[in-house]
Amino acid sequence: MKIELLDPARHERRGFESGNAQLDEYLHRYAMQGQRQQLVRVYVAVDDLNRVVGYCTLSAASVRHTELSPDHARRLPRYPLPAVLIGRLASDRTARATGQRIGSRLLIHALKQALRAADSIGVQCVIVDSKPDAVGFYQRFGFMPLQADGHQLYLPIATIRMLATD
Ligand SMILES: CC(C)(COP(=O)(O)OP(=O)(O)OC[C@H]1O[C@@H](n2cnc3c(N)ncnc32)[C@H](O)[C@@H]1OP(=O)(O)O)[C@@H](O)C(=O)NCCC(=O)NCCS
After folding, report:
1. Which tens digit of pLDDT belongs to each residue from 102-152?
2. Which of 86, 113, 139, 143 counts the highest number of beta carbons within 10 A?
3. Ligand 1 binding pocket includes 102 (Cβ within 6 Å)
């Protein structure tokens, strides 16, 4: 399995099914448009036949300091803080059952991309828009709830950098 930027000329998306109709529809109908309009970068996990077995989206975003945990926010300025957003992340239901840890590998890839961005522009944290059922998946990686919305979670870039250099 490898992870690449979505390229419709090479990647076969038709059979992808995550179990969440909205996430599937996004990949099939809107992902390329989002890339063309410079709204997202879509990364796909593909098998040996270039069939998409998972995907995630990354965009620039911002977060209000009041949404972070009081402990974390205390040291930060009171204007919107720069962030990287993982807007969508899903693995194919059938491929998931083969134990390739597609979701984890996509998430780690996304965090590495965020770190690369943070080397050249300010990034305070990574945010994820989680589906309610997947909150536990992100919490396993240390993501914490944003105060405003239990389904949005965040991980400070400093924590990600520390984990990456360990
Ligand atoms: C959530 C999702 C992305 C996880 O992907 P995956 O390919 O199953 O993830 P992995 O195989 O890497 O799982 C890693 C670990 O997280 C656990 N896990 C998977 N989904 C989980 C969930 N929804 N809640 C809590 N833990 C979860 C796995 O059991 C595994 O545990 P282990 O380390 O003890 O074996 C996938 O289940 C999915 O696409 N779901 C439908 C769409 C969705 O809800 N997307 C996420 C929000 S945008």
Report:
1. 999 999 999 999 999 999 999 999 999 999 999 999 999 999 999 776 789
2. 86
3. yes
Is the separation of the CB atoms in 65 and 47 below 8 Å?
A: no
131 CB less than 6 Å from ligand 1? yes
pLDDT attached to residue 65: 86
Any atom of ligand 1 within 6 Å of the Cβ of 97: no
Could you read off the pLDDT of 75-111 as tens digits, one per residue?
A: 899 899 999 999 999 999 999 999 999 999 999 999 9
Between 120 and 66, the higher pLDDT residue: 120
Active-site residue set? 138
- Which domains are delineated in the chain? 2-165 (3.40.630.30)
Distances (CA, A) of 13 to 30, 58, 135, 142: 12, 18, 26, 30
Check if 41 has its Cβ closer than 6 Å to any atom of ligand 1.
no
What's the 130 CA to ligand 1 centre distance in angstroms? Answer: 11
